Amino acid sequence: MPKMKTNRAAAKRFKVTANGGLKSGNAYTQHRFHGKTKKQRRNLRGTRMMDETTLKTYHQLLQK
Question: Which stretches does the entry tag as region Disordered (predicted)?
């Protein structure tokens, strides 16, 4: 049986942390900032940890 291939699109977007969590960039950060408050824009900077409900699905995409 051949090895599982890593989903390259997912590998470019998500990073696995030491404890097995996933971190990724935020959505809603590409355009139309004039409709968002300063607080929203500030909170959308950086990365966020992925929600527990979707971790299993994304870990399968990232299997090497």
Answer: 20-44
